[in-house]
Amino acid sequence: MSRNVGLYIHIPFCMKKCFYCDFVSFSDVEDDIIAEYFSSLKRELIFYKENYDIKIDTIYIGGGTPSVVAISHIGSLLEFVYCNFKVENYCETTIEANPESLDEEKIKFYCSSGINRLSVGIQSLNDVELKALGRIHTSKRALEMLELVTKYFENFSVDLMIGIVHQSIESFSDTLGKVLKVNPPHVSVYSLKIEEGTHFYNRYESIKSHLPSEEEERNMYWFAVQTLYSSGIHHYEISNFAKENFKCKHNLKYWDYEEYIGIGCAAHSFFDGYRYFNTASLEDYISRIKNGEFAWEDRQLIDDFEKEKEYIILGLRKIEGFELSEFERRFNVVFTEKYKTQIEKLKRYGLVEINSHFKLTKKGIDLANIVWQEFI
Ligand SMILES: C[S@@+](CC[C@H](N)C(=O)[O-])C[C@H]1O[C@@H](n2cnc3c(N)ncnc32)[C@H](O)[C@@H]1O
Ligand code: SF4
């Protein structure tokens, strides 16, 4: 019987690199290289087709910014997937988009090519903040695109950021209020992380006085939790919120510890007992796949102990946590016995709660890194 897997496809192209972003993406790439990249993605898919009996039940086209490439590339890639694999009926199929590179023609095309979920990177609806983030769109453009998305997509998501340069609780409240006017069924709220190698990292000394304090950032987070809840958009993962039936099925696979394969430059996979990721170099990816080689950079068999730890940490990202009976079924281990010391300690600090599920408390969400440390 075929095994169900999620398919992640990485599109590593952007119009311009944002100041905070360390996702693998390149700008100013020539069209013929982009075309070669799409041919490589198809070749990589063939490897899975020839070696495994899989059924794809979620597809996530992420990046980078998939909406910057010509729609014909996206259309032909999806057609290739449908022609070569079993694909679940009503397979959740997401594409990430940026307001600057989106237009009505693209949105219509996505709808007609089987894409049924759009994730739009808005980040903020304040022009000073957008400029400070190095975004290339204005808040006006972002709102126009969101309005357009609602015309064609019932299922869409909005990415927002908190803790960003020049942001205040008032400006975040204003952004959130405007976003809620388009009635999104799904919202992601990411806390800014200053990643090594980014423009922000290199200029940290000059931006740090413009960043909200940790306390202000946490206030924004809990303000988002409450405000979204009042609009029927419920907190289901540390950074994710959804209306009933609109949780992201693909991303839930990561937190539920299910299998997925990642295709493309820098894409990660968790498949057949292994975790691995592809080379982050575009040239290397294209040339290795062209030569019939794997583009894997690191491929590790996950042993049982490692699996338990990963399951705990990923499961705790969900607001409902993970079910103790499911842990026992998967690992043949009684969680409360094996991890008694860690549980007692974390309970004493008020960071976790345990009944039929093991989950973070509100304090545990704010101090999640301390919780992860106990299981690493
Ligand atoms: C790969 S981007 C996809 C969307 C599209 N490229 C765009 O930016 O509009 C995914 C999301 O990750 C978030 N993100 C990226 N870098 C981040 C960072 N350093 N800290 C917090 N969130 C980040 C942003 O909200 C972004 O929309
Ligand atoms: S945030 Fe999105 S648009 Fe900006 S560089 Fe990263 S992937 Fe590209």
UniProtKB/TrEMBL annotation:
The keyword Repressor does not apply. It comes from the Bacteria. Keywords: 4Fe-4S, Chaperone, Cytoplasm, Heme, Iron, Iron-sulfur, Metal-binding, S-adenosyl-L-methionine. This is Heme chaperone HemW. Pfam families: HemN_C, Radical_SAM. InterPro entries: Coproporphyrinogen-III_oxidase (IPR034505), Elp3/MiaA/NifB-like_rSAM (IPR006638), HemN_C (IPR010723), HemW-like (IPR004559), rSAM (IPR007197), rSAM_horseshoe (IPR023404), rSAM_sf (IPR058240). Probably acts as a heme chaperone, transferring heme to an unknown acceptor. Binds one molecule of heme per monomer, possibly covalently. Binds 1 [4Fe-4S] cluster. The cluster is coordinated with 3 cysteines and an exchangeable S-adenosyl-L-methionine.
